[in-house]
Amino acid sequence: MYQKPFTFLFSLCLALFLSGVAVAQQTRLSGTLTDADTKAPLAGATVVLKDQLSGTVADANGKFSLATNRRGPWTLIVTMVGYERQVIPVTNADQPVAVALKVSTQVLQDVVVAASRVEENILKAPVSIEKMDIRAIRETPSASFYEGINNLKGVDMVTSGLTYKQINTRGFASTGNSRFLQLIDGIDNQPAGFGFSVGNQYGLSDLDVESVELVPGAASALYGPAAFNGALLMHSKDPFQYQGLSAQAKVGVNHINDPNTGAALYHDYALRYAKAFNNKLAFKLNVSYMKGLDWFATDYTDVDATTPTEQKGRNNPAYNGLNIYGDEVNRTITGIGKVARTGYEERDLTDYNVYSLKLNGALHYRITPNLEAIYSYNYAKGTANYTGSNRFSVNGFSLLQHRIELRGANYFVRWYTNQEDSHDSFNTRSLGQQIDRTWVRDLSGNVVPANQADDMWFTRYTTAYQGKASGITAANHAAARAFADQGRYLPGSAEFNREKARLEGIQGLAGAGILSQTKMHHTDAQYNFSSALEKAGLSKTEVLAGGNFRQYSLFTNGTLFDDKGGRILYYEYGAFLQASQRLLADKLKLTVSGRYDKNQNFAGYFTPRASIVFSPTEAHNFRASFQTGFRNPTPSDQFIKLNVGPITILGGAPSNSAGMNVYENSINSPTVGGFVNGFLADMQSGKTPQEAVGNNKDKLQKSNVAYIKPEKVQSFEVGYRGLINNRLAVDANYYFGEYQNFILNQVVIRPDSPVLGSDGKINPAAAQDILNSKYQVFQLYTNASDKVSAQGATLGLTYFVPGGYTIGGNGTWSDFNLKGANPNNIPSFNTPRYKTNVTVGNRNIAKNLGFNVAWHWQDAFDWVGSFNELRPGRIQAYSLLDAQVTYRVPSLKTAVKLGASNLTNQYVVQAYGSPAVGGLYYVSLTFDQGMR
C-alpha cells in the first residue's frame, strides 16, 4: 500500500535531478569559519546568501561551499549559536572567504518564528516563548531531544510509557492533550482519530531536528483551534544546508533495581543522508529505530469507590486494583454485599516490548533563487502504552504523511495529509474483561457462552457463599471466589494466550481490538507583505495574512462511530490577519491580529490578540498582551456513537444524533430517583398507579442539553526579557486566564413518549415509560456554562560564567480558581503548584570535552482522570536528575556521549494509573555530516 508514494518520489527525484544538472555553470563561493579567539574551526556555522533561500553549513573543518546562479557582488550572512552574527560582502568568487566569529554571551539574540509567525528577535517577542537551538538539542542530557523539552520553563511532561510522553503548558494537563498543538515543519503531527499528538512517537529523530520553539498559553489567534493551551513548533534540517551522512548508535539500559523485572537493554539507531546538486536540487533520507522494555504499570491499590478505606485491599470481596483489569465487573448480592470478579494484572495482558520506526524522505527543488518546491514523505509505526480512559496498547499503529509545499522568501502554500491505521492496537481493560468471559462454567461444569459468563460467575459465587456447593464452607469469601474461578485461564497458559490473541483481533464490543483508519487533509498558506510595504516607504510596518482548510475523513467500521455505511466527512477553515507597527525610533512595537475559524458543525469564532513590546534599550524588553483561544471538539467528542448495552455514548455534533430525538426529548437522570421513590411511597400508602404517577411526575425534569461547541479562553500576560551586564539573562512572566464552555458528559434518559405534554409539563406517559423500562440511557457530550480562572508566573535566570560555564534556573508557579463552579463540570487542573529546573554546563571544560546537568523538581498534586473514573489519585513530589558528558573527535566528525535520564533512578509516577518510571543510562556514538 505504500509503494506508490516511493515510486512517485523516485520519479520526481530523477526528473528534477536531470533538470538540475542541465543548469548552466554556477558561481561557487567558499571559505573557512573559525573562532576569533581560539582559531578553532566552527563546525555547524550557517552561511546564507542575503535575500535568498540559498545556504549551507560549515563542515568539521569549518569549511563551507555555496553555489549560486546570481551575479556578484554577493552578501553572506554568517551565524552560529553563541557567536555574533556577521554580514560579509564578497566581490571575488575566486578568493576564499576567511571569517572569524567572536563569542557572544547574548544567546538570547536567537531568532524565533513561533510567537508571531515571522522572524523576530526572541528578546522582543510579544509573548512568552522558549527555544531549544541545535546546540541545546545536541547537548541535552536527556535520552532524546523531546524529553529534554521538560527542562524549559512552564512545561509539564507526563510519561505514559517509554515511547510516549505528553507535553502541556498552563494547566489542565492530560495524558492525551487535545488542547496543545504540535507542528513539525508546519505539519500537524496528530493522528486525527486520536485528536492529539502522540508525543514524538511519529516525529523527528535526534539527527534531523534543527530547533524547537514553544509558545505556552493561548495561541489560537495565529495557529487555530488546536493551540488552546500552547503550541510546539519543531523544525527539521534543510538538506541544502545540512548535507552529508550522519549516523547515531545509542545503547542503554533501564529497569535497574526494578522489582518487576530485571535490567533491560535499550537500543536507538538513526541514519540521515542529505545531498544537494548545483544549489538547485537537494534531498534527504532519514531512518530511525528504537526498541526497549517499557515501564511496568503495577499499582494494585484498591480503588473501589464504595468500600471504606479501612476495608480496602486484596481481601476485599469488591477489590478493584488500579492496574488490574476485569475486576471492574461487580454486583451487589443480597445478603452477601458487593463482589467483584477476579481480574488480570496489566503485565499479563499487554506487551511491554515497545519499538518506534520512523522513515522520512524529502525532495527540495529551487525553481528560482527565491522559490522552492518541497515534497516530503513520512511513515512511522510503533508500539506504546497509553493511559486514557483505559490503558491502551497502541500496537503496530502507523501514521503516513505526505507534504507538498511551495515556499518563497515571503510566502508559502502547503498541502499535507495524515493517514492512520490502528492495526493491532487494543484496549487492555476490555481484554481482561473479555478473557474473563471465556472460561466460566455453570454448576454442572460446562463452559457457558460469553454473554452469560458474568451472570453465571456471580451465581457460582452466591451458591458457594451460601454453602450450597459441595465441599465449600458457607460464608467464606475466599472459598466462594475459588469456586467461582474454577476453570479460570491462568496467565501464560496456552488457553490464556489463545484467547488473548483471538480477542485482540476482534474489534468492537465483542473483543478488545481498536480500529481507526481516519484521514486528515490540510491546506494552508501565508503571505508576508512587509517587503512590499518597505518598498512603498513603510519600513516600520509589517502585515501578515494567511488561512487554512482542513477536512477530516473518519472511519472505524462501526466500532466507535456510526460509519459502517461509509466515512464520516466534515471540514473546518480559518483565516488570520496580523499587523504590527514600530514607533519611537523602534523602541515600541504594537501588534494586533485576528483570526476567524469555522467548523462545519459549529458557529464561527473570532479570536483576537493584541500585544505591545517596549524596548528602552536593546538589552531590556517589556511586553504585555491580550490573547484569546478556543478548542474545537475532537472527532470522538463529536461523532462517537457507541452502544455499550445499558448506555449509549453519543457525540455532540448535531448530525450525529439526527433523528434520535435525544437532545430534544430526554430527562435529566439525577431527577429519576426522586420520582421513583415518591411513586413507590405513594403506592405503599394505597394510592393507585395513576395517582402515584400524577403526584410525582413533576419531580422529573426535562433535560436542556445543548449540542457541543468549542471551549474558550481569554488570557492576559505581562513579562520582561533582558540581559544585565551582558552576563545575566532574565525572563519573567505572569499570566491570568479565564476559561468557559469546558466539554463534559451528561447522562440523560430518553423515554419512548414525549417528555412534555400539551400543557408544557411532564407527560404522564413519559413518567410511565420510566417505570416500565421503556427508555434508553445516553451519555451526551456537551459543555458546562461554568467559568474558572487560572494564573501563573515563571522566572528564568541564565548566568554566563567566565570560562564557558553556563548556569541556568527557572521556576513556575501555577494557581487554579474554581470561582464557585461545579467541580464535576470542569476538567481537572492536573498541574503542580510549583516546579523548577536547574541546569549547569560547559561545552569545553577541556579540549573537545563538555558536560551538561539538568535537575527537575515538582510539587505533589492530585491527578484526576477518566482512567480512575474521575476520582483523584495522588502524584507525589519528585525530582529528576539528567546528566551527560560528551567527548568530540573533530578529525573523525564523531562525538561520544555518556548520559543518563533520571540518574538517581527514582521510580516516579507522573499520571495516576501510569507506570513508575526509573532511570535510563546510555552511551551514544554520533557521526555527523560525513561524505559531504
UniProtKB/TrEMBL annotation:
- Which InterPro entries does the protein's record reference? Beta-barrel_TonB (IPR000531), Beta-barrel_TonB_sf (IPR036942), CarboxyPept-like_regulatory (IPR008969), Plug_dom (IPR012910), Plug_dom_sf (IPR037066), TonB-dep_rcpt-like (IPR039426)
GO BP annotation list: siderophore transmembrane transport
Q: Which is one Gene Ontology cellular component term of this protein?
A: cell outer membrane
Q: Principal place where this protein is found?
A: membrane
Name the record gives this protein: TonB-dependent receptor plug domain-containing protein
Compartmental location: Cell outer membrane
Provide the topology term for how it sits in the membrane.
Multi-pass membrane protein
Q: Tell me the GO molecular function terms.
A: siderophore uptake transmembrane transporter activity
Q: Which residues form the TonB-dependent receptor plug domain?
A: 123-231
- Name the domain of life: Bacteria
Signal peptide feature range: 1-24
Alphabetical list of SUPFAM superfamilies matching this protein: Carboxypeptidase regulatory domain-like (SSF49464), Porins (SSF56935)
Family as reported in the entry's similarity comment? Belongs to the TonB-dependent receptor family.
Stretches assigned to the TonB-dependent receptor-like beta-barrel domain: 416-903
Task: List the source organism.
Answer: Larkinella terrae
